[in-house]
Batch of 2 targets.
Target 1
Amino acid sequence: MAFAVRTWPRRLVARPWLLGFVPINAATAGFGVVLPLLILITLRGSWAEVAVAATIYNSAVILMSVVWGHLSDRYRHRRTFLVVNFGGYGMLYALLTQIHTVAELYAIYLVIGVLAPAGASASNLLILEKFTEEERPNAFASFQEMSMVGSLVGLLIGYFWTLRDDALLTLLYLLGALALASAVALWFGIREAPRQLTTASVARHPESLFSRIRTFTETRIAVPFFPHRPPVTRDSLRRLRTWAREEMRHELPLVFVAGFLFNLASNLYNISYTPYLYSAGLATASIFLVNLSNNFVQTLVFPLTGGLSRRFGPDRLVQHATYLRAVGYLATAGLTFAVLARNGVYSSNLAIYAVLGGAIAVYTTASSLMLFRGLEGRDAGSLLGVNSALGGGAAVAGAGLAGILAVFGSFRLVFLVSGGALLVSLPIWTAASVAYHRRRHGRPQPTPPAAPSSAPSALGEASAAAKTP
């Protein structure tokens, strides 16, 4: 491969101010577990209401990603955007402690979704502007390390905080304080860079693009990335159809479709997983610990994924990781049977979710490399807009499907559908790899058939046929 992302920094912290991202990642990781439990335990809601909340949030994130990307280009004050995002989280987390109905939670969660993309563009542009070309790979790798360390800290806090009782409301105050701590630390810890870039610059650097589309710790979905505002007009739809016809022999459409199926399955599974654990009788602290196992293994495996991609190639790793995720989803479906659910449900989910954490770390790096190599020499901004629109659509569709299955189906059906969607994506990933190698290296030239003899034997005919592909 011509490029690779650096996933292991030379130093854990490339700059001291990157430590300011640890508290906010701790807050969002903890909140990702608290929110569904808040609906299920405190408000005595249902799995369907958890799915509705996710649908509202995901829809807000998609729409506001375009708006915040435009604002980031027009008003290039990175600290202000980060403070608005993180400080807003802190106040909204605290406000959630005062709610009494699910409808009130929906309204606040909608505002959280509105704020979510504000810091995503600002943080990536801040690193691009504050580090030189040579420093950026290490800087983005360090930024990812801060994200993973913060996630572990947040889940550990949630585990110990709820070990004795389900103190979810008081935990929200602590998570809000962590978010505010990041806002204060970054406001006083950094200065605006003298050189300022636009969101389109993210698409030209594999590390920044990789960081931008990495899974968001709060809900385990990727915040969409739109370098350009996608126009929705008759001409734009016509151009999209023309592009689709022209790209039929390129691997990118296949990568988009396979990624859509993967994101759909992941969102459907993740939205339903915490309600499933709660329905299986796990205590709140145990649910935090199951989530911790996922993040812990992800933290261990992720630094190795860059080297693994260089050694084995991203194509092979994507397929192995997707297959492993599918097996994990189907194994979770197996745990829903009464015979298995009576014994070992906690330890089984702990092991399965840990394996899924390692698989998503490998998949994220490998699929990002497959996407980036398809963008070389092309209009990366527009293509990333298409990819983000599909990813956002998968997030909303996964949440909506979870809501439908919550009413008419079961957890078992959700996990079976999730695993099946991943299995369907496997041949599409294979086709994308074949299309890439054909485009890169060309079709192999067929070997000309052997000259016929005057009296060919049956053995001679078979030999000639064998030489012709």
Target 2
Amino acid sequence: MPTAIPARPADTAPDAERVQVALLRAAPVARRLHIAMALSATVIGAARRALARAQPHASARELELRFVELHYGTALAADLRAALERRDATPQSVA
């Protein structure tokens, strides 16, 4: 069973958390969206680096497919793998 997310990080004082929440609430939507997207990018980057460290000999494609499998499911990763293999097998026309 997953553990519950604590109401407040253990390393954050209650007063600091109140200030942080007040600043976030007062921020314009665009700023809050920017913060959320930046945090997401940071987490995604950390997950990709962890996969690369865990599988140092894997190709970039193998790492990408493993990322998709872990975060979006085995079925989607299998579909993506099949689509990439079909794309690679199809001769590309030069215009």
